[in-house]
Fold this sequence. Notes:
Layout (H helix, E strand, L loop, with lengths): L6 E7 L4 E4 L5 E15 L2 E14 H10 L5 E14 L5 E14 L18 E3 L5
Parallel strand pairs: 4-6
Antiparallel strand pairs: 1-3, 1-5, 2-3, 3-4, 5-6, 6-7
Amino acid sequence: MSDINSVIMIGRLTRDPELKYTPSGATVATMTIAVGRKYKKAEEMVDEVFFVDVVLWQKLAEIAGKYLTKGSRIGIQGRLTQRTWQTDTGDKRSKHEIVGESIQFLSEKKSSDSKPAAPDGDTSFDTTAFE
């Protein structure tokens, strides 16, 4: 039996996507989404927010860089991965991030943004559509 590694979240971008290119020319976008929930604690409603790093590759990264800005509300589906590295001082570090396989735009673009408006109609993009 295989294990399942699938994540679906809805949140808002905390900053514009950052586009970079690998030495081989692959496009990669990194961004962080804020995901919140409300719950009741001792007769009081509590807001809880946590931040999740997201990595997108190739055409999906280009789409995010073109259409998404800080505050955009998106749905993200992908897989969870753990990245590890060693600092210059020898300390080991690691972090979990979502490698996005599809995104869905859930908020409309503001007309004052310098980026183009998201396309009309289907605003769901997945990596299989660009293979």
